[in-house]
Design brief:
This protein has nine helices and five strands, in the order βαβααααββαααβα. It has 199 residues and is α/β, with parallel strands linked by helices. Helix 2 packs across helix 5, helix 4 crosses helix 5 and helix 6 packs across helix 7. The radius of gyration is 18 Å and the shape is globular.
């Protein structure tokens, strides 16, 4: 089984690429951020540790964790963010490795792992190759303003706070230019799949 990592900055359109890989190439898609949310659900392995870190006031009436309250805290407190990441990231990695193993046993051809902090958390260590989804900054700003309702300044602040284009390019194996033409993106994905079949 081939394990492809997918990374890129916010607003780059990674979910579009994941959707094409899943639909056109029968890839099993694992999204680290979504797994992180699952692992904070009641009964999951990070639930108690996150409550111990932030206090009982983050528990909602339905016993789930109020992620918005956590996000408000870690947005201004870097120390709490580091502690939260120390709980979530190791658990997410273990769950991803478990899921990859299950897919390998099931005879799946392609498994795709996507994570916001892909390079920082060294997800490339268990991927055969890493793809970088690149989109021009102006397009990313427009996407964030439209899809998330962010102001131009907030969008730019988030983008500038992430890993630079140069760092992404230096640490990945294949680049997909995702500037708006869906057919062109689909063609590049097909080339990326075929490229490694011939290596």
């Amino acid at each position: 089984m081939r394990v492809i990592g997918v990374t890129g900055g916010v607003g780059a359109g990674k979910s579009t690429v994941l959707g094409i890989l899943e639909k056109d190439f029968d890839a099993y898609v694992i999204q680290a951020d979504l797994l992180g949310h699952v692992l904070m659900e009641p009964g999951e392995e990070c639930y108690d540790a996150v409550i111990a870190l932030f206090g009982k006031e983050i528990i909602k009436k339905d016993k789930t964790i109020d992620r918005r309250r956590i996000s408000d805290v870690v947005f201004t407190d870097k120390d709490m963010l580091l502690k939260l990441n120390g709980i979530i990231h190791p658990a997410v990695k273990q769950r991803i490795l478990h899921l990859i193993g299950k897919q390998r046993e099931a005879g799946r051809g392609i498994c795709v792992v996507e994570a916001a902090l892909f390079l920082e958390e060294r997800y490339q260590e268990f991927c055969d190759e890493v793809w970088y989804v690149y989109t021009e900054e102006e397009i990313r700003i427009q996407r964030l303003m439209e899809s998330r309702g962010y102001s131009r300044d907030k969008s730019l602040g988030i983008i500038r706070n992430q890993v630079s284009d140069q760092v992404f390019r230096e640490n990945t194996d294949y680049v997909i230019e995702n500037n708006g033409d869906l057919e062109d993106t689909r063609r590049q994905i097909r080339e990326g799949i075929e490229r490694n079949e011939t290596l």
